[in-house]
Design goal:
Strand content of chain A: 15-25%
Distance between the termini of chain A: 42 Å
Oligomer: heterodimer
Distance between the termini of chain B: 35 Å
Number of helices of chain B: 12
Radius of gyration of chain B: 21 Å
Order of helices and strands of chain A: EEEHEEHEHHHEHEHEEHHEEHE
Largest sheet of chain A: 8 strands, mixed
Shape of chain A: globular
Number of strands of chain A: 13
Strand order of the largest sheet of chain B: 6-8-9-3-10-11-13-12
């Protein structure tokens, strides 16, 4: 395992109290694999990768749990030492990792000479090599970020992240704002990087079809916790947690015969309120009284689910395919 | 069925900033956002316009709502030429044709309560004040915002994205329009919320008998809303067909690439490699002939000299590609 996240707790102090954005999340990243972190907005996936990278917002702090990278428990000093050199981050908006007033090439040279050990000459050669790696022409090094299209900026941001030869790449929604064809080209770049450089990756996304296309493993988060994790084929073909089943039903599929999308009624809970038991209970059509008391993580062969009714997962999965199962509250309550 | 909106060879050019050398030469460069678009939207139909950023789909939506004027060609609404819709007729048209914005977070004034946001179109249209409360209430009911009146005094930042998108739709529906243009209505929303908004769009269209145009870059979503889809590339319609035909049997090489690029949530469905390379060219200098030719795996000499016209190939299926139009004798 290149990365182990163990019962991670990240708290944000806000005016309305403490928000437990990540509340006991555990998952692992095997060496050389691409792990997809999926869930709705506010489920804690971006906070989790920012915590691993050590770039939490000012009001955020690690309140518990640990992050182990290559066998070493991370603290502030090790995070600072490894950041960019061994663990790199591609942020949600590529524009925010590029400075508009410098050419993209000079920014790459800067990173390579100031943070890395390159001379200016070797940094220039390495910049050309990095551009080639992400499928950009060498002559575009002289361009400014605004001269790049959205897809090219994303490629440049990836080149920047790879500058110091990290072994783990954290990418936050790297293709979300892009058109499908460009999106596909970027996903193909990421896949070739994994294979050529033997990179390990964590890909944060809300798009399960991106996970299906690119990832080896998937970690499904809900309300700050991991509800299901395992190999992509297993989890998406035979989901065991009702939340994963709901997400799958709500997702458009170009090739399916079903011409109806089934929403999950309600919305995720307020994380500044004290919560007990399984957090999906208020939206779950399969919840039982015991579910509100506590939740248990079960499973084997790397496919784990945090549903108390995991033993009935096969029956529940069949029932979850029926849209009527999810229509308990068809009107949209505003609260 | 009669057409509600008809477009004939519509052209829209936007001037762009001139460089020094262009000033000296007296050149007037322009982006050809739309370059000869012809199609009809039947009364009561739901039509999707699909394409990548910069293909002209948003401009097309704005032209159909008379928010911008075409540079050339003609558009008509319910039989009346758009160019003649002015003055009192324009006010009536504004009541009948509405836009649902892309980003619900930007579409509402943050300083207006949600009641104010929805009543605004009634005030602008000069509807009798006595009717306001009832009409607002019925618009909120249509979008399934239960117990809405308790929230009339709230501000946009106090609502979730899904609730905001329902408010945006209530505002578009409050005047009882017959024509709706929705520009990426769900692209900013979470998956689970998105499914609910799509179901709602379908429902209001059916119950109110609306004619709708959905503008989207997402073919997978469009399938759930529209029977017919137009695919655009660099200001031109390259394929126009029933949505299921577009998805299952795309004929234009660009449409084939779009369909191949859409990721699917099933890891057992292996996706074909992308059949095209490169990026959309600069709209200021599109290639001669077929504007897709420099990315097309099937390009022939003819494609550089002759722009393919949109021609029927089967029932309700039109394609603008020389592969589908044998050389004329």
């Amino acid at each position: 395992m290149i990365l182990e996240v163990d019962k991670l707790q990240i708290h944000y102090s806000t005016r309305s109290g403490v928000a437990r954005a990540v509340d006991g999340a555990s998952f692992v990243v095997p060496e050389g694999r691409i792990v997809g972190l999926v869930g709705e907005s506010g489920c804690g996936k971006t906070t989790a990768v920012r915590a691993i990278m050590g770039v939490l917002a000012e009001n955020g702090r690690q309140a518990g749990g640990r992050v182990v990278f290559k066998g070493q428990t991370m603290d502030e000093a090790t995070t600072r030492r490894l950041r960019w050199r061994d663990i790199a981050y591609v942020p949600q908006s590529a524009m925010s990792s590029l400075d508009p007033v410098y050419t993209v090439g000079s920014q790459l040279v800067e990173v390579l000479t100031k943070r890395g050990t390159h001379s200016r000459a070797s940094a220039r050669a390495r910049s050309a090599e990095l551009f080639d790696l992400v499928g950009l022409s060498e002559r575009r090094l002289a361009d400014y970020p605004h001269q790049f299209s959205g897809g090219m900026r994303q490629r440049a941001a990836i080149a920047m992240a790879l500058a110091l030869e990290p072994s783990l790449l954290l990418a936050d929604e790297p293709v979300t704002a892009l058109d499908v064809i460009v999106q596909r080209q970027i996903l193909d770049v990421l896949r070739s990087l994994q294979q050529r450089l033997h990179l390990s990756m964590v890909l944060v996304t809300h798009d399960i079809s991106v996970v299906a296309y690119l990832c080896d493993e998937v970690v499904v988060m809900y309300a700050g916790q991991v509800v299901e994790s395992g190999p992509v084929r297993e989890v998406l073909a035979r989901p065991r947690h009702p939340y994963t089943m709901g997400l799958r039903n709500a997702f458009p599929d170009l090739l399916s015969d079903a011409l109806e999308l089934v929403p999950i009624a309600g919305s995720p809970p307020d994380l500044s309120e004290p919560l007990s038991g399984c957090r999906f209970v208020p939206r779950c059509p399969f919840a039982q009284p015991a579910c509100s008391i506590d939740s248990v993580v079960t499973g084997s062969d790397g496919h784990r689910s945090a549903c108390r009714r995991d033993a009935e997962a096969d029956t529940i999965r069949t029932a979850a395919l029926d849209p009527r199962t999810w229509q308990r509250s068809s009107s949209f309550a505003m609260s | 069925m009669a057409a509600l909106v008809e477009l004939r060879d519509v052209v829209k050019h936007f001037p762009v900033t001139r460089s020094l050398s262009e000033l000296v030469r007296g050149a007037h460069p322009a982006v050809r956002a739309l370059d000869g678009v012809t199609f009809d939207v039947g009364d009561g139909d739901a039509v999707a316009i699909v394409g990548e950023s910069g293909c002209g789909k948003t401009t097309l939506g704005r032209l159909m709502l008379k928010l911008v004027e075409p540079t050339g060609g003609a558009i008509s609404f319910a039989g009346a030429p758009m160019a003649e819709i002015t003055g009192e007729k324009l006010r009536a048209f504004r009541r009948q044709a509405q836009l649902v914005f892309q980003n619900p977070f930007d579409a509402l004034n943050p300083r207006f309560t949600i009641y104010r946001a929805v009543v605004e179109p009634l005030i602008n249209a000069g509807i009798d004040k006595a009717e306001h409360a009832d009409r607002v209430a019925s618009a909120f009911r249509r979008v399934h915002l239960a117990d809405f009146d308790r929230y009339y005094d709230r501000y946009p930042h106090q609502l979730s994205g899904g609730q905001l998108q329902r408010v945006v739709m209530a505002r578009a529906l409050v005047l009882g329009p017959r024509f709706l243009v929705a520009d990426e209505p769900v692209s900013m929303l979470d998956v689970s919320v998105r499914a609910g908004i799509l179901a709602l769009l379908r429902e209001v269209r059916e119950t109110m008998g609306l004619t709708a145009v959905y503008i989207s870059h997402d073919l997978a979503l469009v399938r759930y809303l529209c029977e017919r889809t137009l695919v655009m590339y660099l200001g031109r319609v390259v394929e126009d067909a029933p949505t299921e035909e577009i998805v299952r049997r795309p004929r234009h090489p660009y449409t084939q690439a779009l369909v191949a690029a859409v990721p699917v949530p099933d890891p057992d469905q292996s996706r074909a490699p992308l059949p095209i390379k490169g990026n959309v060219p600069d709209a200021r200098e599109p290639p001669s002939g077929c504007s897709f030719r420099d990315r097309c795996p099937h390009a022939m000499p003819r494609c550089a000299t002759e722009t393919p016209a949109l021609k029927p190939v089967a029932g309700g299926h039109q394609v603008a590609c020389h592969l589908d139009t044998p050389t004329s004798p």
